[in-house]
Predict the structure.
Amino acid sequence: MVYRYTLILWATFLMCPGYTIGQTDLEVPADIVFKNARVIEGTGSIYTQAVVVIRDGHILSISEDPYMEADGSLWRSDWQAGSYGLNMPWEVAQSYEQDMELDDLEASGDSSKRPHMVIDLAGMTLMPGIIDTHVHLVDSISDTVNGSAYDPSMSNVARKLNAYLDHGVTTIKSMGDPLDEIIRIRDSVRSGKLNGPRILTVGPMLTISGTGESTAAAIYRQRSQPKVGTSEAIASPDDAIQTVRHLAWKGVDAIHVDLCESSSSMPMLVESVYSREILSAIVDQAHREGLTISAYTVEEPIALMAISLGFDGLEHGVTRSWLSDTRLERSLGMQNVGYAPALGVYARLMPESMQAARENLDNLAKENAVRIVLGSDTFGLAEPGLNTIQELRMMVQAGMTPARAVQAATYDAAQHVGISDETGSIQVGKRADLIILEQDPFEDISALFDITMVVKYGVIVTDNRESGTRPNMR
């Protein structure tokens, strides 16, 4: 009776004037039942033929092969249930479509039935949506058209956001953006004004005053492109504390520090006690604000220093030289620090560093204790979304197994950006951010280039099936 009463309340709300099923985080979508799916759970588990039920934007339940209980009822052998719903007999899941037809609801006026769809994924793979932990969404190179003046128009931002979703990227962390602009874009996606992946914001990248020009700044200078408001130099520990407090007050989701200085300034940064005090102040204040913090590094000594100071993740890691020993591997594993190699940017812009970047990744990935994560560093003329999938392919070509690369793009990436309790794996109670593939990416990572469907927060936002088989959102 309680369950039926809950459905009555929900259905009554659904039929209120002005309510529509949409594609925003704020609206309640119809239930979705995926059946006969091969499910890549995200943390290493695989369901070979599962039923996954989506309700209110979250995973309601997951079930696999049935077996007969002593009382004669047929239940799924490993049925999971959480705070979002009750256990459901196998017969209910199988007959969901017949038992809960909205047409019957409209004809009979019985408000105990809930709008839903059942989608047969026989022969397909269901996996968590991809999380790209390193992109530059507001980017003067890609936002400059035909040599014209920099104009980050909302139409271009909307194109990028849709491209990410179409390629199965349901979450991005964007770095080095003008603060007010990226907050406005993020909030527009959250409210449904813009369609796109979930955006985690960093705002400007922080640098240490007096340690030279960062590689990122040099790239823009060499291309005569403005990069206004995307970095902020920190002059003292007090300045560090106040800056991080301000960023937290503005609503950023994470902090990022650019430690990729020119080679000549690298010893200055590592050996300067004052620089280390500033960095410690940044890290400590970020953690006090409940924010994760990552460092952009390319040199081994700086990467080791960043780990020792408490950074949660490394972007790029070590690319200017080969690893000298196993210290980085041990430090990453012991401190549970994520490592996002961003190989694609070296293939495009710095091919002289590509070999070291690939071999260092291969060596680190051989150690299961090291958390490798996906971060494509998409900017410039790299195509959003497509570049993310190409990055995964390069990670496999560098020596990672396809299974390890998929985990790097889902659960491990979610850990890296501090949202693994919400998304990154197909587990009861987590956000329904999902992709459906025709082929198995564990067999061939290139399967991710052929995405059938994308679900963001329980709503189908990309559907590449033939129109004749497209379900109705009832």
